[in-house]
Structures are given as structure tokens and as C-alpha cells.
Design brief:
The structure holds two protein chains of two kinds. Chain A is an all-alpha fold. In chain A, 81% of the residues lie in helices and 0% in strands. In chain B, a hairpin with a 6-residue loop joins strand 1 and strand 2. Chain B is elongated, with a radius of gyration of 25 Å. Chain B is α/β, with parallel strands linked by helices. The chains are: A mainly alpha, B alpha/beta. Chains A and B meet through helix 1, helix 4 and helix 9 of A and helix 3, strand 6 and helix 4 of B.
Amino acid sequence: MSDHLTLFRAIAKKKVVLLVRYPVNTLSQFVSIYALFAVIFFGGKAVAGPALTDSIGGIIVGFFLFTAAIVAYSGLSWNMTREAQWGTLEQLFMSPLGFGTVVSTKVVVNVLYSILWSAFILALMLVTSGESLALDVLTVGPLLVLSLASAVGVGFAFGGLALLYKRIENAFQLVQWVFIGFIGAPVGRYELLGWLPLAQGSHLLQRAMRDGVRLWEFPASELGLLVATALGYLALGYLLFHRAQRRARHHGVLGHY
Amino acid sequence: MDATTGGVADASDEAEDPTRRRESAPEETTKVLRVRNLRKTYGRGDGAVTAVDDISLDVERGSVVGLLGPNGAGKTTTIKSMLGLVIPSGGTVEIAGVDVHEDARRAYRHVGATLEGARNVYWRLTVRENVEFFASLGGRDPEDVRERYESLLEQFDLAAKADETVNDLSRGMKQKVTLVCTLARGTDVVFLDEPTLGLDVESSLELRRELRALADRESITVVLSSHDMDVVEDLCERVVVMNDGKIVADDSVENLVGVFGTQSYRITVAGPIPESVRERLCTEYDAEEFERVGEGERFEVTLTDADDLYEVFDALRADDCSLDGVTATDPDLEDVFLELTNGERERGDDRGDAEGGPATDERTATEKVAEGPR
């Protein structure tokens, strides 16, 4: 257990060190995400006026989840490509703690980081728009983590593809935009859409943050679907990742770029 | 050739030398790396390429073994198969008694590797941050290995650069950082794949000097691959030469050079060499590269026995050719390597296009190694 804690500390420290050491890089990422929201908010206000004001709460919640999902997803998929480029992927693989453990620890650090990141963006969006939302940590926290689990599952799948095919950055970018579709899916009207990654989480987060519904006030079936999709996509993604790393080793391309 | 039974250097000598032993754990034997019938074939059918072809070898604890071969010989695939980074088509690899492909996590406790030179570390982290990160990755608390890595940083002349980001260091220093990261954990075996790749002559020499000092002082087990003969000759007691995925020689550097202990001589004669003498020199001694030098003439002969030189002198004197000078060139590992790899290739060609051709009693390079010096 102490080995795992040491590993967690090392990965978290590396993340923090790089964020602090390269502040311009960190800031530019933050600004570009906020700028996207600002364009939507101020542009939309100028074009749609009151219509946008009515839906701004939904946009903020969607953007909040989108930010967190992108950070959690890309932290895994892009990271595999970069580690291969840097020649460090094979070092990660040869950890006595196991490649799966190392990558999973990276995921945990990434998810924590994505939550922090999206919380900052959320605060900035609320200040910019003057909107107020229900922010019950006991409700939003679990819903956000479960929603992100399905994004991480997609990240594992694409991380696995990155181990095999390396140069698939364009596909990564495409997936980021597909996430917008998942987050905006009308699950209230078409329940089946709740089986898509992020969709059920987005639906419940909207109700929790806009309507003030508490975690225990949601129907068990709706929470059950969220848990099922979270665990299902996570397990499926990890399975694909595991098979991809075996295939990459079989073809001798694990550390190639 | 099965290196475990063939031309393996007298490994028992090393095993009996107590200075080359480490404290042994219960599962440890003197053979810290054991490879049996390792094979790796990429692809299927007509397009299949065999990168590693039935390799077996043992590495004794505390020895420094060089894996030498031309590009495409299969060195990197062999090393990666030994490390579990490539899944082999067949065979087994045990590190410190643990099967790498059955129980990789346990095996990785005993092994560290630097693959492809200066990569393997994070260039945006400092030297110290890298060492600590990779210690943690290896399941060690950085505090537990601090004393060791501080000493390695001193030895590799990196102490003053410990808090600089790797990106700001020269290529040679970057490579030293990767080595320190690998060595800091203090594993039983260290694999170094092309550790001097891309370094200038001076940096390469410096790195070799430091590695040699480390190998002498700590008696670590190192498996090192390189296409640079000087690196292998400087660092390794034993050399495994690979060609076309096979081991074509496995012996000590000394023995290999001894087996191929041919000596080249450049002989200068005061006047022109008569045609009859020239013919005899060519036929009996394979003399070549005749050239005019002022009033005289010069040629080269390569002899396996020093006594033959006197016969060459006699042949010249018989026709009143007076000697003007003789220079000798010593063979080195590069000559051995070229003879081995070229010899194997030629043998392959002969098999392909001379079936039923004239019988020959000449030994191939591999056979010479297997049989030892005549």
C-alpha cells in the first residue's frame, strides 16, 4: 500500500511541478477554455438576448462538465502518445507496481486535477454571468465523479489505440467535440440516450445544479443508470486498453512513435 | 549455436570470484539472467520476419555482457523480449529466477533499463525530480535511495546540475541522467540499449569511463547492447555477437580476438617484385593491394601464424628482393565482428546458391569461435 501511496505522491507532485514551472502554459489553457465560454455567453447575449439568459444555467453546467471531462479524458489519451514520444512509456510499463496501477494512478490524479480545474472555470463563469446555481458538494461531487468515469473509460480506449497506432491526435480532437453531443443529449425526452457516456451524468447534474435536486432525491433507477454507465464504460475502456497494450507488445510497438 | 553450451566464456571463473558476487537472496542463483530458446517472429506467412531466432544464454551475477550486432541484427528486439516489452513467439526469460512473461511485476523488482539513449526521462523536470520520480515508479521511496542517487550524481558529475531541468543539459548529460535514474534503484540487472547513441566522441568516452568505474566498484550485472565496438570492448568482459537474429559468437573479448588472431602486415620491398614472386605471394599467402612506392613496391598479407611471415621473407629473398620495411596492425574487436557477421552472411549466400558445389574444409567464423584457437 505504501508503494502505491509513494507512486500517487510522485505522479501528483510531477503534475503540480509542471503546472507551476510553466505558468504561461497553464494560464493559456485556462484562458482558452474561459474564452470559449465568453464567446458563447457574450456572443449569444448579443444575438439571442433574453433567450440566452433563460438557458445560461444549463450552458454553465454543461460547460462545467465538458471542461472536467476533457481534462480527465485528454490527460489519459494524449498522455499515452506523449509518453511514447518521450520514451518514458516503456519505463512506466516496467514498474514493479504494474502498468495498470501506474496508469490508473495517473487517472486518479487527472480526475482530481480536472475537478479542480473545472471548479475554477465554474466560479469564473458564475461571476461572469451573474448566475447562481445549487452547489451542494455531496450531490455535485459524486455525480461529477461518476460522470467523469465514463469519460475516463473513453480515454482508456483511445489511450489503448494510441499505444497501437500512435499518431491519432486528430481522432482525439474529434472525440472532444463528440463529448459536447453526449453532454447535450436530451436524456429527459429520450431515456435511451442516457446509456451514452456522460449523457446521464449531464442530465442529473443539470437537475442537481439548476433545480437543486439532492443526490438522495433522485430516483434509484436514474442513479443506477449513472452508476452502470460509469462502471461499464470504465471497465470496457480499461479492457480495451489492456488488450491494446498486449497487442502493442506482440507487434513490438509499445514504445515506438 | 546454443550459447549455453557453446562458446560461452568461462563463466564459472567469474562466479568463483567472490569480489564479483553480491549478497544473495534466497531465490538468487549465480545466473541472474537465463534465456532459453527465445524467438520472435513478426507477421505471418510469406511476409514473416524472424527478428530473434532461438536464442539461449545465461548471464552470471556481476558480469558485464555486451550484445553486439549490425543494425537489424535483432539486438533491441532481444533486449525488449527479455524485458517483457515485446511478447516473444517462444522461449522463456528468467530474471533473478522470475519468469518475466509469467510474473512481470515481480521480475521488474530486479531489473532496470535504459532504452535508446537520452530518452526515458522527463526533460521538463529537474535531474533530481526525475531520479525521485523513477525511484517511486520502481516501488522505492525516494528517501530510501537518496544516499545512493546522491552518490551516483556525484560520480556522474551531475551533482551541480541536480536542480536544473534536463532540457537545459547537453545530450551527454541527458544520457547520464537516464543512467542515474536506472541505477538509483539498485536492481540486480541493468539493461542498457545503445547507451552512447548520438554522443560525440568525448562524451562517449566519458560515459564509458564512468560506467566502467561503476561496474568495477559495484560489480553490477549489466547487459549492454551497442553497435559501437569500442563501447563493448571497453566495458564488457563477455560479448554476444548477433547477426540475423541469431547468436553467432558468445565469448570473452580476449578469446574472440585470440580466435581471430590474424595479423596483417604491410611489406615494402626495395625494388619491383618479379611476376613469379608476386604470383607465389598471391597464391600461397593471399597477398593483395600491391602498389608502387617510389622505386619499390608494397603489398599486404594477412597471416594466422607469425611463422608464416618468415616464409614470406624467404620467398622474397629467393628472388633477391630486399626488404625495405614491415609494419603490423593489431586486430581488434571490430575485425572480429566484421569477420563474424560477414562470414555468416557469406555462408548464408553460399548455402543459397552453391548447393552441390565444391566441398570446402574452411571453418566458418562461428565454427572458429565454437572450436577455439587452433
